[in-house]
């Protein structure tokens, strides 16, 4: 399993126009190439961009940017790059209308005041910056759940069906482990491990809202706190349509045939990873919305099912309560420090 919640990891976040799009994890020992050619890891569809435009590589403990003799040059925060450039947290690499932000902190990488900002994540796969999608069609949401049927259960007994008993056992153990987490990122990583154990998901992520927007959630404000994948699969953020539906209706949804539905994908990104089914569940505690849980299955022979949806909703409820408690502890600590 690949878990990108490691605080030591660094990322390039692609900005297309005024929107943050995809995130690429910079892999130690590997060169990340950027250009118009499809052979690059980050493919930019902009005529200003050369076929092989620039590259980012590690030297010692630093990440460096090198222009590859591009015809229009590479800028960092408006300054032309004419030699190897050591990248600093928050700097923006500029290629035509496309920007790539450098960061080691996905959750707090860019100012919350940029209301149009939103990110997707990719680990090892080639990505592209696309134009706006074609007119959207109605998605196939095949199941919805608002109520967590596990709520009120304590430790699992022996009278439930096998799957229910298994899910209760996993949920109970996961709740105990979540109680030891020290921050939101650690909580997210614990939850993703539990979801892989309890569902058929191939890819999963926890997306959180900035604190100031939790009473008026907007899907384009969701930030990736952590993600995990099996077999080094990439992750792309759930579409604003689907996450907006979940946030507005306060219910978890299961959708199928994701790769063929333009409302469930952002600029064909899910089509690139052949996502067959998706679950999106809200993180709500009381009247506060913290974000969403997001799972994909890429295996047509192992689609996410209603039982996976029920388990995910149960875990989402647990996570929301844990985040609420974490917020209370932070407020108490801040109050004591004053």
Verbal overview:
The protein is of the alpha+beta class. It folds into two domains: 10-103, Tumour Suppressor Smad4, CATH 2.60.200; 140-151 and 163-337, Beta-Lactamase (2-Layer Sandwich), CATH 3.30.450.40. It contains five helices and 20 strands. The strands form three sheets. A seven-stranded antiparallel beta sheet has the order 1-17-16-20-19-18-15, with helices on both faces. The protein has a seven-stranded mixed beta sheet with strand order 9-8-11-12-2-3-13, with no helix packed on it. Strands 10-7-6-4-5-14 form a six-stranded mixed beta sheet, with no helix packed on it. The longest helix is centred in the last third of the chain and has 32 residues, at 306-337. 45% of the residues are buried.
The tally of strands reads: 20
User: Beta fraction of the residues?
Assistant: 25-35%
Sheet with most strands: 7 strands, antiparallel
Query: Might you state the CATH topology name of the largest domain?
Result: Beta-Lactamase
Using the CA coordinates, give the radius of gyration.
20 Å
Low-pLDDT windows of residues:
1-7, 112-139, 264-273, 332-338
Report, as a whole number of angstroms, the end-to-end distance: 42 Å
